[in-house]
Specification:
Length: about 140
């Protein structure tokens, strides 16, 4: 069994593809005990390895069922379920280079400048192929 770090099993998480680093970013979801998570992980597609991302700043509380997108080297985290009957409509922004979260002010437009192409996907159930999140099936479409 590998001792490399990897995310725990989870559902209702979000994944976004970051082409500049050829990696996936995974945020939050619910673990097997239905506890919401606020961890951030990166999966390097070239090395096929997970690493937990150090987070600073205004770290969002744990959540599931949120959205996660990428724009101008920033992860955009919106909404989600914080706990049963407590939903969120907050917007958090993670600066990939500074590895720091902040909340987006509605009057700010700096982040809305044109950017590159990004892809995001819902991770309804992770893992979907095997018992370990670290065991990614290369034929699995994301």
């Amino acid at each position: 069994m590998s001792s490399e770090p990897r995310p725990c099993r989870r559902s209702a998480a979000q994944i976004v593809f970051y082409a500049a680093e050829s990696c996936l970013y995974l945020f939050g979801g619910q673990d097997e005990n239905n506890d919401t998570l606020n961890d951030l992980w990166m999966f390097c597609l070239t090395k096929r390895r997970w690493s937990e991302v150090e987070q600073r700043g205004q770290i969002p509380p744990g959540r599931s069922g949120h959205t996660l997108n990428l724009h101008n080297n920033h992860l955009l985290l919106f909404g989600g379920i914080l706990e049963v009957t407590k939903e969120s409509n907050s917007l958090y922004v993670f600066d990939i280079f500074a590895q720091s979260w902040f909340t987006q002010k509605s009057s700010s437009t700096d982040l809305l400048a044109p950017g590159g192409d990004q892809i995001s996907a819902s991770a309804a159930n992770i893992p979907s192929q095997r018992d370990s999140v670290g065991d990614i099936n290369p034929s699995m479409s994301i």
